[in-house]
User: Fold this.
Amino acid sequence: MSIEDVDLDGPRPDEVRIRVAASGLCHSDYHFIVGDMPHPLPVVLGHEASGIVEAVGENVRHVKVGDAVVSCISTYCGECTQCQTGHNYRCDDKPARAPAIGEARLSQAGKPVHQFGQLGGFAEEMLIHAHSVSRIPEDMPLDVACLLGCAVLTGVGAAIERAKVRPGDMVAVIGCGGVGLNVIQGARLAGASRIIAVDLNPAKLELAKVFGATDLVAGGDGVVEQVRELTKGGVDYAFEVIGLAPTVRQAFMMLRKGGAAVMVGVPKFGSDISIPAMPFLQQEVSLISSMMGSVPFQVAIPRYAQLYLEGRLNLDSLVSQRIALTDINKGYEQLAAGSVARSVITFEGVGRA
Ligand code: PAD
Ligand code: ZN
Assistant:
């Protein structure tokens, strides 16, 4: 990534312009950096941002200039069947929220510049569709609030909204990065009796304890046997939060009868996953997936913010370091090395960040 100036055009009637306060380094952007997922170029990456509304288009009602907001990639139309049945995070008409061809919101020397997820949060300002932001409580510190837009929404939502973990359930979480740690605290909030954290990195396992893990297992071979042994027959829910076929298979293999493996990690574009057929049939287990917390973000983000303000959701320990935009490439090297939970870019002097 290089840091360059771009021109912003708008806001148009349904758009908002945000002065960015903070922006988290999520692994999803990294899939594009290394080419595991294709994207038209040039592009401004970044999707987990908080900031202050600077300008709104004439149709925008739910936020106003000066509001503190968080961005989310689950832009919705509000009119399709998915939106109308309460699943706007699966919106069928999401592309319609993008600007028309030839009307890019961002440009450089007259040439269009793309926005990852129609957002582009690694920047001082974002020009985005209004259905991509949620208002947050005024007293929410913006340098942690950004994490509500992806890591927290995705992780806590996977446990509570998708799996619907119940008090007493046993849970395993494979991959304890920024998202996985939030699956762990989502399971804790839901009352899980055992939460087994699995990661290759011992430091991540130590951090997992802070978020509610009751047992720690070093990743790699033998994980399935260890989890089955610890739980006397397997877990009710196993979450894969990395994006690799072998760990999806591990999640599936550590289920007890009737359990469900939840795929959260983003796989390499075009890749396959496989599961053994016989246990799939005989043990009535499921393999399900969860996108962006499986919940309308404008409902969930303010709720999760409130839980933070009440001391029930830990966001502070997710932030391993606050960095300047100029250190973004180093921040991603550290993410790839597995040494940080979340690095957060902060822009001085915006809101309370
Ligand atoms: P991260 O890099 O912070 O965390 C990944 C963790 O996995 C690290 O702690 C690694 O040490 C650990 N790990 C890697 N390989 C293994 C292994 N073989 N066994 C055990 N542990 C291992 O990433 P993140 O938390 O930001 O994101 C995790 C994934 O979730 C990533 O693929 C991202 O793109 C995806 C994601 N999905 C959604 C969604 O809606 N489904 C949303 C946001 C992010
Ligand atoms: Zn993300």
